[in-house]
Structures are given as C-alpha cells and as structure tokens.
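Running log. JK asked me to keep both predictions on one page so they can be read side by side. First protein, sequence followed by its tokens:
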Amino acid sequence: MLLPETVRLRVDEAAAPLRERARGVSWVRAENLHVTLRFLGSVDEATLGRVREALAEAAAEVGPFRLALAGFGGFPSPSAPRVLWVGVTDGAEPLGALHARVEAALARRGLPPEGRAFHPHVTLGRAREPRGVSGIAELLEGRGEPLGETRVEAVHLMRSDLDPGGARYGVLAREPLTGHA
C-alpha cells in the first residue's frame, strides 16, 4: 500500500533517532516506505496474472478507509529486533480485512497462505546483526507521536528489484477499493 510523500517524509524524519543509535541496520529509503499486505517473492508471469485477479477480487470487497501511523516497534520483540517498524494506529481493522480477503483470493488461485499472523506496519529497516540494534528498546515501545495519515483508496501490486543501493520498487497493478466501507 503506497503512502503519500508527506507521510513518508514525516516517518523518515521521526526515525532519525533510530538511525543514529542503531548502526547495524539496512534502512529503507523514504521513497520506498509502504505497507505490505503480502510478500510473494519471485513469481512467474502466469502467477502474476493470478495475483492481479486476486487483488481485483479483494479490492472489490473493501471500501476506502483512513490509515494513521504512529509509534515504533520491532519484530520479533523490541528488546531483540530484527525488523524495525512504525505501527498502524487507525485503519488496522479494515487493513486486516483487506489482508484476509487478499489471502483468501490468492488461496482460491492456488497460492498458499503466508503462514504467519498479519501485523500492519511500515518496515523501516532490517538488522544486519542483532548487536547492531541493542540498546534501542526504549525507542521501540509505546504508541508514540502521530506520524501521518492517509486515505487508502487502492491496493497495489509491487515489484522490488534489489541492487547495491537498496531495493527499487515499481507498481505492476493498481486496484481501487470499491466495496462498502
């Protein structure tokens, strides 16, 4: 799910203290900050077609909704994070419903479920080594200050290409949310 530039820049600015203290992290560039509904990995063209169909089906069942971001956290825990993130404070329920519909639509097309609970968030970075993020747990707990909000009106199928400077993302498909909110 794409975020407007103003929200991405605000999140990036608010994450500066994390970047200063957690040196062993591969940080996501501000222009790449987004909410992931489902990670697919490498897929062939035939599978991409089925994914597009699934997104269209799911998007037709969910209406537009408001999404707000605040607070930092870490997976699997704030005390030993491998992934640093900013949380979804408003809109988690419709986002979860959209995720469930995407999963169901993908399953009907032969793609197995991801196999882990959905936790709506925006990934900020991934720890290259655990000791590189030690001592930041206090920055990763609590609700935190509001970091922005947006109206979600579409779901996007994204492609990521990895290069030495980080991932580059491109939109392969956009499906408007046309269901009833």
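And the second, directly underneath as requested:
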Amino acid sequence: MLPDPQTLAVFMAATLMLNLTPGPDMMYVVANSVGRGHRAGVVSALGIGAGTIVHTLAAAVGLSALLMSSALAYDVIRYLGAAYLLYLGVKTVKGKGASIPTQRLQRERLSRIFRQGAATNVLNPKVALFFLAFIPQFVNPSRGSVVLQFLMLGTMFNCSGTLVNTAVALAAGVVGDRLSKSAGFSRAQQWFTGSVFMALGARIALVGPR
C-alpha cells in the first residue's frame, strides 16, 4: 500500500525537513514550554498531533477538498482559529501570575492544554491546504487504495512532526526552567506566552488563504 522505496525515502526526507522548519505549531509548543514548563509543551505537541490526525482523515475522505472549494467555509474556519488563539493570548496575559517562580501547571490542567493544541491545529485551514498540496505528490494509484496510502503517509508525517515538536518542547522547557529561577520572570513568562498566541492568531487572520 505504500509508495516504492525510492519515493518513500524522498517523502521521509522532505517530511523531516518540513517538520524541522519553524512554523506556527512549533512556536505554539515553544511558547507553552517556556511559559508553562516542558510537560505543557510536550502535551501541546501531542495535542497538535491529534489535530493533524483530524486533518489527515478529512483530507483522505475529501472533506478538506470541499473546504478548500468554499471561500466562505475557509474564512469561517480561519477566523474561528484566529479568534481562539487571540482569546488564549489575552487570557494568558491577563491571568494571575504564579506565586512561586518555578510553579508549574497541575496535572488536571494538562488535559486542557492538550485540547487547546488540538483545537488550534484543527482550526487552521492552512494545515488542510498543505496536506492536499503535499501528500498527493507521493500517492501512486497503481500501488493500491489511494485513501489508505494517504492515511499511511499522513500518519508518518504526523509521527515525524510530533517527535520533532516533542524534542523542541523538552529543549524549550529546559530554557524556561532556568529562566524561572528569576523571581521576576513569572510575569514575563505570561507576556511571552500570551504574545506568541496573539501573534499566531493575527497571522492566521491576516494572511490570505492562497
């Protein structure tokens, strides 16, 4: 069901390079890791991975193509995603700072971080557009079901991206842990994290679909 080995090797090389290139998802993970600790960053990466699964399934069955064909539907999803990120940013900036500089999120709040990561990814229609533009180049109808090939390639792309984002989360978390030893850094963490969220929201809202 997979492409031939040569094509698959090209796909994996391109996938790794794309996932290593800093983008909105990586910046979102960095913001959470620096502002909230490495656990929040890792959970954000997993949430983004869950959102990518939704995009993979949607593209495989043609829902993304339907979304891309409707300018209204595209804009609705785009502005919902932008509004959600702006909301998270404002909420983070206006929230109460940690009373102890090294304080981290409680375990029960990590589920919320996961849902936020998934939502920001699902509500970014550019991810759907990317999947429709990138993965079909490596699908070969002569090698079996196009849908299954798409799902397999999308899963491989997602696994690579999740691993990269997890590594970035751990590295950014180390930086955040060291900086958090400063008594005045708690508020700065909030401003950094919130500002990144708002910048990502503005980017989604202002950058055109094509």
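Observation for JK regarding the second prediction: The two ends are 31 Å apart (CA to CA).
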